[in-house]
From TrEMBL:
Cofactor(s) it depends on: [3Fe-4S] cluster
Protein name in UniProt: Ferredoxin
Lineage: Bacteria, Bacillati, Actinomycetota, Actinomycetes, Propionibacteriales
SUPFAM superfamilies given in the database record: 4Fe-4S ferredoxins
Organism expressing this protein natively: Kribbella shirazensis
Molecular function terms, GO-annotated: 3 iron, 4 sulfur cluster binding; electron transfer activity; iron ion binding
Pfam family, one: Fer4_13
Keyword vocabulary terms for this entry: 3Fe-4S, Electron transport, Iron, Iron-sulfur, Metal-binding, Transport
Task performed by this protein: Ferredoxins are iron-sulfur proteins that transfer electrons in a wide variety of metabolic reactions.
InterPro entries per record: 3Fe4S_ferredoxin, Fe-S_cluster_ET
């Protein structure tokens, strides 16, 4: 699974951090940091993060759905 966050769109709502804390986090400067190729065991959490993001900034690159 590969994911991408559109940083032009992301508004640091941090809903993804709550949904998938093993994949997304905020650094000390409140910038979003994320694992671009998270392990498959995080698929459910990442899908939750995608749907939770209020500005639809997260994309699953290798997922047609
Ligand atoms: S939930 Fe969306 S807008 Fe908020 S930090 Fe995550 S990607 Fe950015």
């Amino acid at each position: 699974m590969n994911i991408e966050v559109d940083r032009e769109v992301c508004e640091i709502h941090a809903q993804c951090v709550f949904a998938a804390p093993d994949v997304f986090r905020l650094d000390d400067d409140d910038e979003l940091v994320y694992e671009s190729a998270p392990d498959e065991r995080h698929v459910a959490a990442v899908r939750h993060a995608v749907s939770a993001c209020p500005v639809r900034a997260i994309r699953l690159l290798d997922d047609a759905s």
